[in-house]
Structure formats: structure tokens, C-alpha cells
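Notebook, bench 3.
Goal today: get a predicted structure for Aminoglycoside phosphotransferase domain-containing protein from Silvibacterium bohemicum so we can plan the truncation constructs. The sequence was checked against the plasmid map this morning, with no discrepancies at the termini. Length recorded as 402 residues. Pasting the sequence as submitted so the record is complete.
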Amino acid sequence: MVLETLGEWSLSGRIAIVEATNDQSITALPGRFAWLPLEEIADIEIEDAESSVRVMLQDLLEGRTDDQAPFLQLGWTEDLLRWIGRELPYDRIDIGDEIEQVNASSSHTLLKIRPRHGPPLWFKAVAESPHESTGNEYVAVTMLSNLLPTFLPTLLGVRTDWNGWLMRDGGASVEESGHLEAETAETIGKRLAEMQQASIPHLDSLLGHGFTDQRIPALRDTMLSMMPYLEEAVLSQRSDAIPAIEIGRLKEIAEIFEEACFDLEEIGIPDTVVHNDLNGGNILVAGDACVFTDWAQAGVGNPLVALDQLQIYLAQGKTFAPWCSRILHAYREQWRCDISEAQIDLGLRSVRLVSIATHLTSRWQWLESRYHYNPGLKSYIRSLVRQMDKTAQSRQCVGVQK
């Protein structure tokens, strides 16, 4: 079980702190890793921490733990399995030891647990860390599981000390299955609209518990606040493989974004919960059931943003692209009592810029974290600005044709 990974070191490569949970796992390391005695590990200082690798390991072995790093503790998985046995009608022996570790660090984890009998279970935790922005996923999942329980995997229990939750397996993800059928595509469109409609009475509560406010007025303000970061990102481009966005053009994009916001407001579509990371990996399907997972970027805003983000994902692959129209048709049908087809079509013409901006502002925490100066983050921001530029150009062309 991986407890933590520590950077890329010029001399030592990547360091992984691993706990062997049984005799078999001692020999199950990937080929590029090797076990080392403590005294043979270089005492490398850890970036942004008053510690070193050897001190961290010594603290771990001697049981000196950090409340903000609950998964950098020996035996935490056994603690978890005993807790599951108390939460569910399982004996510890029935839970077994078959655990697939999907994601890991000292402050967050994602595990798939296969009991000896019954469907798989998932445990996810996003414990607070001074060096990571984990968002409000714990709050989002626990709230939505209470308010909109049929649209998320079934919540079976929570570990408040870890900001963790246990879920029943919700089925295969669309990405994992690798294909869609007509009925499944229609189910996805219908369920997305149903979830959005069901969230409308709860928006004040969601906003009051930390869901990001991405309604048009707030989105305008956030984008205005982000302009210095966007300017910094475009000015830091060093490669000439792709033409750089000029500051003047960035300001033009901001003006066109304002116009799109105004148009979308005029249409009068009600705000709803917005997932903000809707892709095939976060849509789970089992028979005629469909649920949505991974709510780390959850917000409140225009519902067409989620539909547009999903369409962007589907259009990227030949397998899924043909089903966009089916999803859109089912989505329209579900909304038709509240929003006309004309409203949806008009909204979709203006939503792309707002959709990209919403995606960008939901990553605002990155810009206020230690990753602010990371070249990879700036490159990612530039890619989003280029998408906005492309969309703005299309909007300008349509305006000329009018």
C-alpha cells in the first residue's frame, strides 16, 4: 500500500513510501522500484516542509503522526477495513484483503475494495493538507447524497476524521466501457437534466456550504480577478510552436466573454448544480441506472455549462461523438416543461465561452496555491485561453454573418 510519493529527485529518482500489508505484497513492487534499508536512503530535504525523507520515515516507524496526513500511518488500511466491518453487516474476514489502490498520497486516497461476497465498495478521502487544494468534495458528496441521493453512488458511511466516505459501486464508467448505446445515451441526457432540475430548490443551501458560485454575475467578477493570472500565463510562453496570444487579444476575448454572459442571462435559464468535470470517467452506468461521481469541482451556475462540457468530451472521440445528438434530444425532452427548445438552442450558441470560463474558474484554487509558479499550470491556462480565443473567433464570424 503506497503511503506517499515524494517528487522527482535528480540523484534518487522518485521515492515511494510503501507499507507491505501481507507477505505477498513484499515482492509485488513494480520493477523500477526496490526496497531500501533506512540507513541507505539519502536524507533529502522535502520541498516546502521543515523535514527530510529520513526524518519522515523515522517519524512513521516510531508512530509520530500528523493529523493532516492520516494516510502516512502504518496500519491505516487495517483500521479502515475494521471500520467498514462496523458500518456494514460484514465480518472482517468477509471483507477480505483485496484492495485496489487507485490514487494515493498522505492526505487523500481512493480505494476499490472487493468483499468476498457482494458488489465492490469504494472508499475516498480528501483530508485537509496545507500543501494541497482538495476542494470541498467531502462536503459536496455528503450534501448531494442527502439532497439528491439517486444521482450519486449510494453512500454507505462517512469517516469525518478523514473527510472520507464509503460508496457502493455505481457501475462501469462510460470511459471504462468504451462504447455507448442509444438507450444509454438517452439515459445520460435525461438523468443529467433530472439532477439539475432536482437541485434548484437547494441552491441556497449548496452555496452556503461552499459550492463555488459560478452564476453569471459571480463568474464575471471571478474572471475579472483572474485577468492578471491569465496575462502572466500568456506572457510566459516561450515556445513558438503555437502563436502566442497577445495581451490586446486577451482583452478582446474578455469583452466577447462579457457579451456571451449577457446573452445567456437574457435567455432566462434557471441556475442549477454544476458538476464542472463531467466526462466519461465520472458517469457510471449499470443497466438503466446512471449516476455521477467525482464532485471535487462542484458549483452552482448555468445548467448548459455541464451539457456543453460533456459534449466537448464526447466530441473528442469517434466512439462517442455520434451519440451527442441522442443525449441532447433526451436532455431537451426532460427540460421541456420549464425551458423551451428554442431557449436551449439559443443558450448553446452562447454557452461555450461561459463553459470554458467556468472550468477555468473552478481551478482558481490552483492559482492561489504553491503551484502558482508551476510551468505546467501556466501551460494548461494558456490552452484554455486558446480555446476561448477559438470560440470567440467563431462567435465574431457568426456576428458578421448576421
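The longest strand covers residues 2-9. Residues 129-135 have pLDDT under 50 and may be disordered.
Flagging this for group meeting.
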